[in-house]
Amino acid sequence: MSNMRVAVAGTCSLALLIAQEIQESTSHQVIILSRMNQPILTSQGYQCQVVNYKSSSSLQYALMGVDTVISTVTGRPQLRLIESAVQCRVRRFAPAEFEGRPGLQSPNSILDRGKSAARSLLRDYATYMQSTTFVCGIFYERFAVGGLRAHQVGAEVANGEGDYIADLRNMSAVAPIYDGANNYSSLCLTSMYDVAKFVVKSLDMASWPSEMSMCGERMTVHALINLMGICRGRPLNPVEWQNPSGLQYQLSIANDKTQQQRIATHLATAEGRYDFAPPAYLNSMYPEVVVTGLRHWLTHTWAAVS
């Protein structure tokens, strides 16, 4: 496909990995949309455009000549970005999803963060602009030192180190191990680095399907807990095993937002929101992309922490 102008909205770690992959692996032009000046990124050779998400004229100016928008911003800013992209005749738009399959998500969930509204708006504009949902399951980086918060990803409060399934520093876990039928629950996981590679590969597709999945590893939560113990050289203890009914009860009595988000994410895991059947679409489309194994990633990430 001919060279195109691609706008990446946001400056979280995922956005910057996508921008870096475009810059280094393609001949496409990438522009990073940011709420503030980014002198460090500019000094590294990136084209950055300051935007005001409350101003349609600011957004439309930034999107002039853009073929594809990849968003990592959520809520009202993303809705305004979609509206402006349509006005500027942007051909394709990928909203800030990068989680489980959208069909399994509830618009009333505390985890939604305006994502269902963005998908609905994109469906309304489907005759004018293509869109896709990138499905990757859980980021490996949820288990990073510092958690997702260290990567400036996600608007949830409960995205710090130890907030999801396992506290690898203190070696404890609260694990949604069972699904509603009392079978082991499963989930798919992918590193942000591999997500960026697959997203950039998809830029050269002639058209986008409504959903594109990718996966680094698929396993049960039980196997994940065991793997973490192997990578850290000692078992997690204590481990609190959970199932959907228990989590639903906990959610009903939780009155702290952080606790509600933590429980809701565990409940979504137990209910299979982050699970999808292999092979993932983009893994099949681009077999040359060698994904990072979770065992290697965990061992490397926590090597310096005793």
Number of domains: 2
Helix-strand pattern: EHEHEHEHEHEEEEEEHEEHEHHHH
What is the CATH superfamily classification of the largest domain? NAD(P)-binding Rossmann-like Domain
Q: Taking all residues together, what is the mean pLDDT?
A: 96
End-to-end Cα distance: 48 Å
Side-by-side strand order of the widest sheet:
3-2-1-4-5-6
Number of helices: 11
Gyration radius, to the nearest Å? 19 Å
Structural class given helices, strands, pairing?
alpha/beta
- Could you say what the CATH architecture of the largest domain is? 3-Layer(aba) Sandwich
> How would a crystallographer describe the biggest sheet?
6 strands, parallel
Pick out the low-confidence regions: none
Name the helicity range: 25-40%
Strand count: 14
- How much strand content do the residues show? 15-25%
CATH topology of the largest domain: Rossmann fold
* Overall outline: globular
The CATH class name of the largest domain reads: Alpha Beta
Mind explaining what this structure looks like?
The chain has 306 residues and is α/β, with parallel strands linked by helices. The protein has two domains: 127 residues, Rossmann fold, CATH 3.40.50.720; 120 residues, Alpha-Beta Complex (UDP-galactose 4-epimerase, domain 1). It contains eleven helices and 14 strands. The strands form four sheets. It has a six-stranded parallel sheet with strand order 3-2-1-4-5-6, sandwiched between helices. A three-stranded mixed sheet has the order 8-11-13. Strand 4, helix 4 and strand 5 form a beta-alpha-beta unit. Helix 1 packs across helix 6, helix 4 runs parallel beside helix 5 and helix 7 packs across helix 11. The longest helix is centred in the C-terminal third of the chain and has 14 residues. The termini are far apart. The model has no long low-confidence stretch (mean pLDDT 96). Keywords: NADP, Oxidoreductase, Signal. InterPro entries: NAD(P)-bd_dom_sf, NmrA/Isoflavone_reductase-like. GO terms for molecular function: oxidoreductase activity.
